[in-house]
Amino acid sequence: MEPNHAPLSAEASLEDLGLSVRTRNALKGVGCITVADVLGLSLDRPVRGLGKLAKEELLTKLERAGVPHPSESQPSGEITRLERHLERMQQRVDAAMLSISKELRAARQQLRRLRMRPAGSGRA
Q: Mind listing the pLDDT tens digit for each residue in 55-110?
């Protein structure tokens, strides 16, 4: 909370939070006009126009205004985000391992073909 400032009421408008224009417009685009509207918004799911930085800005401004978002008081939102992040990482690792495996198979096949070639029949 900002020093010497009373917490904002739930009826306060978005402008009172001091958000960037982009963040404020994204929130208005999903129907949020007041702080109460924002507090009722589920930030655990993607919100159109509200990316990672905008969410961070929003959560920081709400906290400073003395009205932290309910999702921040519950670790489940962070747990869900981490689980999704880990799942995406695992998918990338699996894809990389598959690619490496294919390359290994191709190199082994090429080596077998080279070994089967009679001596002196190499390419020039």
A: 989 999 998 898 888 876 556 666 777 888 899 999 999 999 999 999 999 999 99
Q: Output the pTM of the full model.
A: 0.54
Contact 19, 57 (CB under 8 A): yes
Structural domain range at position 79:
75-124
Residue 9 DSSP label: P
> 84 and 117, same structural domain?
yes
Has residue 4 been placed in a domain? Answer: no
CA distance 81 to 31: 24
Torsion of CA 75, 80, 83, 88, to 10 degrees: -140
